[in-house]
Amino acid sequence: MTISSRRRSTRQGGFTLVEAMMATFVLCVAAAGVLLPFSSGAAVRAEGMRMTLGAKLASDLSEQIVNTAYEQIVTTYDGYAEAQGQVRDASGTVFTDLHYANFSRDGSCEYVYVPQEAGTTEANFIRVTVRVYYKGRKIVTLYRLVTK
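^ thats the sequence. predicted structure below, dont judge the formating
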């Protein structure tokens, strides 16, 4: 038996350290390519949930304003503001759920004249604007026209 054949027969099967490291690297790259869309999808889903909740908060405040007597809307809700984490429900109770912790909202109301009312002294419409913010970034603006 020659020396070279003896070396071949004593070598056991398996991977060398370099081969194992290369296989691990290829596996990591493949896993990252598969998992990346899932993490992006989760971020988009979370943003959609924030937008939906923001639209509901804007709608709730808008309904609260519309259900106020016409003569009191501007004096009560023009300049209305709720600080971040201090958003209230219709009964005036602050939401304690963590989903609402980073939301804030404000509202403004102004009398609006339409061209047909040019000669009248009293406006028949109020434009209600409700804005909802998430961590200080505006995510929803809702406009509503209220009449007597």
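The chain has one domain: 16-147.
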